[in-house]
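Tutorial, part two.
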Amino acid sequence: MQDHQNFLDNEFVGEITESQTALRSYIWKMVGDYHCTEDVLQKTNVVLWNKRMEWDPTTVFLKWAYRIAYFQVKAYCRDRRREQGRMFFDHDVLDVLAHDTPRFESMGDLQQALADCLQKMDKKKRDLLLKRYQKDCSLEEMARKQNCTPNSLAQHLRRLRIKLSHCIQKRLSETSVIPEG
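Running the prediction step on this input gives:
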């Protein structure tokens, strides 16, 4: 039984560690202040740890963590309003902000979407786009090798980046996790 609990605790630590950037962004969006965000994040992490036995490892961790963070933000705003008379968003505004969650769970999701979309691209176009981001590769030099003007190459690269961006956005929207109200 102890080995099973250690396994779950280790899995939980991995999930909570991976979610820190997304949680910080989610909290910051509602409180709008770096120091307040860090305070709420710390309290959220404590609550997450204390409630770790309630988390079902077969569910999406971040969805559960967002709900806990949301209630920690509400408590933080209530306490600050009471202590300092400081104005914070009312509960209706917090509800709207809370449901406008980040569109991906982690940078890993973004990187995976980028990799998938690059893989879908025609090899020649992908190589051209990637070449532009290599060190010591100027647009003028690339245009000369492609037998075109720098301006036409810049326009072509711009169109490729737009297509890539649309692909990434579509991919992320297919895998988005939005907490329930």
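Residues 77 and 90 are 9 Å apart (CA to CA). In part three we will examine how such features are distributed along the chain.
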